[in-house]
Amino acid sequence: MQFATSTFMVPVSDTDIEETMTFYRASPSGRGPSNAQELAQARATRASSPSAGPVMVGMAESGGRSVPTRIIVPEGGFRGVHLNLHGGGFYMGSAAADDARSSRLAEALVVVVVGVDYRLAPEHPWPAAPDDCETAALWLIDRAEELFGTSSITVGGFSAGATLAVTTLLRLRERGMAQQVAGAALQFGTWDLSGTTPAGRLIADEYFLDAYVGHVTDRTIADVSPIFADLAGLPPTLLIVGERDILLEDTMTMATRLSLAGGDVDLRVYPVSPHGFTAHPTPVAAAAVNDITTWLGERLDLDDGTHSVATPQSMPDDREHAMAWDDASITALRMAVASGGRVLVDLLRASAFQAVLQFVADALIAAVEDGVTGADAVATDVAAALRVRDWSGDLELAEQIDAALTSTTPMLRPLTVDLDELSSLLEGDMAYGGGRIDLQTGQTWPDNVFEVMDKEMFDDEALDDPDRWLFVECTGSRAGYRDMEDFVDSVVDEDLAEKLRIALIGRGAFRRFKDVLFSSTDEYARYHLFSKERKAGRARSWLTDRGYRVRVGR
């Protein structure tokens, strides 16, 4: 058995990694305040991020204690409540500073988001913050049904907020209430504040520790350093951390301890990313935020009948179909695709789905096969739209939908493979692209992985077995270049179109093209959908030619 960071690394395309690295090269990370004076300066310069919608300011009260809250309610109903604990090293930050992030989560996850303005160190050192977070959690568990009509609750935390989320759950467990929380999404928390573990010693000289727990004699107590706690009996947890986060080792250790305690734990490490990366404008961060939203959605009760899914408005033509999908609606769509069934069908019935045909169709086929009400009608419309669009892979997909609608036994063998990952093998860098698909699991493997893999995992004979592997030869990036050319032809703004045509001349066209396109938020988002659909269609066509079709994991 191999146990390595790479085992938990989330696959990200080379292009997204390069864009992310470019951002960090231009924006080097720094350390937090190192004394009270620097802390005061940092607090003075930090600004809140305004919410995209209305915010209700209130007080959570329980057991004679109270704490300020900020409540954001999505439009069109909701299916649960998410308790959000902000970050900031226990000595900075606020619920208001998280308003924009909370608004996006509320709309994408279709939940009420309750932010907690817990007291900050050094003015209010431990145990003030965990006391406040416990108060908010007890209030929410007691009043959620009355106030919001749902008892489905999740909790999440960012950095110090993740630490406080776990101390809150530990306190709830002592009251026999931890299982009333459906799941906890924990982003790069600090689990050892004692400085006694190897991971903890990496941050032992940080000022935030003195500010928050400098007065505590034994910092290994569970309410300060959750890594030392009995972690049994906690709800499912998702641990998110960047590959270059100083807290990577601490997070991996925490995941191990949660697992050994019998917990349902999902550890995900994201490449080339430092501490706090999910707040940065990078493709890797966007992928992580989507993953968090999807994971939380899976923890909630999708069929409790108390909510409606937020959807984009239908629009009349192909270009506007793509413009209908903003970040929040794309995230809602990802969640619906992951959930499948009636949630997906209801969303597609009210959406401009013509821009996301390849993305939604496999989950829609599964809904048809499962007999979900309304799936047949939506699938018929999707198949018709595929035939009208007629990009690579569209006709093959329309035929697969037809087979599902008529209960015809498909001639293609099912394979649980991710088209994005397959596309990365097919259209990556010629020097590093190519690979194989494991026909037993559907997992994609780049060829360069086998150069460093433990030989005990696969012997040479197993690696050459055509019954085990479907070999993928890299075709290079020429098709992606043609996508950019075709996209330019659809750009209405002539000045932007001309700049894009110039960007396509010579080496480095992909980077220049995206740099120019980034100046137009709407067109950049439209290109992302356009490119994703084209790549998925080509990957599907390649797969069909080899006798396989995509099967959605159920």
Description:
The chain is α/β, with parallel strands linked by helices and 554 residues long. The chain folds into three domains: 5-25 and 55-302, Rossmann fold, CATH 3.40.50.1820; 340-411, no CATH class; 412-553, no CATH class. The protein is 46% helix and 12% strand. It contains 22 helices and 13 strands. The model is unreliable at 302-317 (pLDDT under 50).
What brief labels describe this structure?
554 residues, 3 domains, eight-stranded mixed beta sheet, three-stranded antiparallel beta sheet, 22 helices, 46% helix, globular, AB_hydrolase_3, hydrolase activity
- Please, how many domains? 3
| Major beta sheet summary | 8 strands, mixed
Number of helices: 22
**CATH H-level superfamily of the largest domain:** Alpha/Beta hydrolase fold, catalytic domain
Q: Percent of residues in beta strands?
A: 5-15%
Overall strand count: 13
Shape annotation: globular
Radius of gyration over all CA atoms, rounded: 24 Å
Topology:
Elements: H1 14-26, H2 36-45, E1 56-62, E2 65-72, E3 81-85, H3 99-109, E4 112-116, H4 128-148, E5 153-158, H5 160-174, E6 183-187, H6 198-201, H7 207-213, E7 237-242, H8 248-260, E8 265-270, H9 283-299, H10 318-323, H11 327-339, H12 341-349, H13 357-369, H14 375-389, H15 394-405, E9 413-415, H16 419-427, E10 435-438, E11 444-446, H17 447-452, H18 460-463, E12 469-472, H19 478-488, H20 494-503, H21 509-517, H22 521-545, E13 548-550
Parallel strand pairs: 3-4, 3-5, 5-6, 6-7, 7-8, 9-13
Antiparallel strand pairs: 1-2, 2-4, 10-11, 10-12
